[in-house]
Request: fold
Amino acid sequence: MKESISIIVPVYNEEANVQLLHHEIKTICEQNEYQYEIIFIDDKSTDQTLSELKKLHPVKILAFRKNFGQTQALDAGIKQAIYPIIVTMDGDGQNDPADIPKMIQYLRENDLDLVSGWRKNRKDPVGKKIVSRTAHLIRSTMINDGIHDSGCALKVYKKECFEDLSLYGEMHRFIPALLKIKGFTIGEMVVNHRPRLHGQSKYSWRRGLKGFIDMVSVWYWKKFAVRPLHLLGGMGLIIIIFGFLSGVITVFEFVKGQDMSETTWPLVTLFSFLIGLQIFISGLLADMLNKTYYENREEAPYSVKEIIQNEKKAEVENIGS
Reply:
């Protein structure tokens, strides 16, 4: 059976990489007789990336009005995809398109919904490797999605994975965890990772901080998305119990003849009850609001300026005289 695949590639300031990467993707797809489309999302590059993309055939180009980030670029590309298999990869040339057929085969043979690449032998600077391994330890503790390298952009999905999933923030790193929460089956395989030949890495401490905040969000959704009352209600009850205990101490001190104006126990009791009750009620409200899942909003967190569709060049026949 011939596969029909959509390849999604977000790019930002990758003018020296996009033509070679496009050629590699096109070659792999044609060698395997795929029905395919290649979608590049230009995240408002400040160099000549968009100009270089417009020279490519076949390609669909989404040009953002401003820099929205990799996650939003992926989300825009995925929403434009028309084929049942979606492949995502970085635009810096470090992911190897030659791994795509093996990943699709692995997905089919094991009846998976997602296959994530594992850059077991990374060709990155030592500092970036340390940051990545630290992030992996934190992620495996908080989320435990069973993936060694969730940050690897090279992934193969069945399109239905994204029917009820919208991406935001820096959530692209946590797609396997989000899908696992929803009940999709995920797998992982070792892929080739190549050194960056041109351009500079876009990773920064700010992205790392945003990623950690989003990790907390994923942890919350994993643990308490269905019943937020379990978290907020539990916290509220603990504080109310503490207020009850402090109330017992307050009564005991009062019976002993303690001047209540000279102790903080009455205030501790009052505020504990009020704060605990407020948190508990917040849990009840969150439990009800949970039914209006924000992903049902039609508004997207990005704005596409234009969509450019370049078809294959027509072959010119040389007619002899």
